Amino acid sequence: MITRRSFTGLVGGAALATSSGLSKAQQPQPRRGGRVRVVLQETASSSLLDPTKVASWSVYFAYELIGARLVGVDSHLQPIPALAESWEAANGQVNDWIFRLRRGAEFHDGKSVSSQDVIYTINRLRDPAAQSPLRVLVDHVSAIIAEDALTVRFKLSRPDADFPLLLAQDRFHIFPEGYSRFDKPLGAGAFIANGLDPAGVNTYRRNPNFWDSGKPYLDEVSFQGNQDSIARVSALLAGDVDAIQAVSFSLAKRVTATPGLDVVSSPSGLHNAIAMHVDKEPFDRIEVRNALKCLLDRSLLRDKLCAGQASIGNDHPIPPFSPFYHSELPLRSYDPDRARTLLRKADINLNGLVLHASDAVTPGVAVDLAQIFADTAREAGVSVQARRDPVTGYWDNIWLKEPLMVGAWGTRYTPDAMLRVAYRSDAKWNETRWRRPEIDRMMDEAVATTDFARRRMLYWDIQEAIHNDGGAAIPVFFNQLDAKASYVKGVMPSPLGGLKGWAFSDIWLDR
């Protein structure tokens, strides 16, 4: 039987958070009270408030403050109890999962959280009429059954050893049965909303009946969005706010050099991929794909583009902190001679390649990455034009359509969550058009087995195949940088970033 404890051991761990070196007795203890003012990295249209449909940080952050999921994650992306106190695979085949809800957990209106609320929430994601992009994540849920008021059973059409972590992902907050007023957020989380204005300032107050005893410590969290990274940093430097999301690599040194301010650096799975369509000339030749991968100066990109705030990538999407990362696969180095040899073998002369990039991908990074790649490729006699495309329309008109373009991917909780959406043959977002049915079968076996050693072997083989044959050149994984005043305590490095809404139940002020 796979229980919560054995599931945690199955997915492994990663040491990302740093410690202060103080003994537990010496460390300052959390204090109650105060308000933290946060500036987020973007705003959203007031017409897009349903958190299951919109990708806006303002809406996402609001529901992270007020909402709660069945399963939480810690700073190592390990599953921890939230609204579900425990879970287990009922038959040992991980296609039949039982979740037991926390007794006494309440929504902000005083209603107790029940199995029917869970069924309503997940069925809403599954409903084709709701048109949620999250539907693909739960398309293998064949039935949800209320065993009793506090026990929910999920039957799956295929085995899924990662299923508890799936329910821990973004926007799986549990809502009361029948809830649909997304301009008046209602959940079972640490803070209570008085509405949601994604283009303005919102102040949410402490939930005195929060199920996690003693938390949150703050009385209020106030937040607003601003897409201007310089304006966000300026507000922090001036003392107008207490914390900001998404500090650019170029501005992080300015913040670090300012007394009383801290940068929280979180190694993550965030990466840009130079994507080549493997079904289009000249990228249908493996020699061409690997020659271009040899023309990425990964150390230069890490140190110059990212100011050292990145880890080296190896042309597959699994980050180094993952317990399934292929640590024995040699890192591909910058090697113009090797690139020239591969191109001679292919009997091809690469001229006039156009690499599309835009600030829509990763602001302040993706366009520069494309230009640095064009510069280093020139040393091997490969002519690449780095084209800066407009922000507007990039995802609709360029991404997935042009044969050589830069894409962006965030941190995924599990290897399957990354591979299934971008590297499976039939994946809607297969940006390289790399289709290998034998790799699809390996993905299915990996997510179905509870044998950690077998899973790791399968994921290692998949990483090696993508590295050797795939159409994605992935040079680095970016650290996510947030910044705060030093008196804001309890912010921990996390692959998801240190200032996610759910983290604010642990944040406190030491003034």
- Span between termini: 48 Å
Mean pLDDT: 90
Tell me roughly what share of residues is in helical segments.
25-40%
Largest sheet report: 8 strands, mixed
Q: What general outline do the C-alpha atoms trace?
A: globular
Number of helices: 14
Q: Give start-end ranges of low-pLDDT stretches.
A: 4-24
Structural class category:
alpha+beta
Q: Nearest-angstrom radius of gyration? A: 23 Å
Strand content: 15-25%
Number of strands: 22
What does this structure look like?
There is one protein chain. The protein is an alpha+beta fold and 511 residues long. It is 26% helix and 20% strand. It has 14 helices and 22 strands. The protein has helices at 4-11, 57-66, 115-126, 163-166, 229-237, 249-256, 286-293, 298-305, 336-346, 366-378, 394-397, 415-422, 437-448, 452-469; strands at residues 2-3, 35-40, 71-73, 79-81, 84-89, 96-101, 141-148, 151-156, 191-192, 202-206, 220-225, 243-244, 261-267, 271-276, 310-312, 353-357, 384-388, 404-409, 472-473, 476-485, 488-489, 508-509. Strands 2, 9, 10, 11, 12, 13, 15 and 20 form an 8-stranded mixed sheet that branches. A 5-stranded antiparallel sheet has the order 1-5-6-8-7. Strands 18-14-19 form a 3-stranded antiparallel sheet. The longest helix is centred in the last third of the chain and has 18 residues, at 452-469. It is globular.
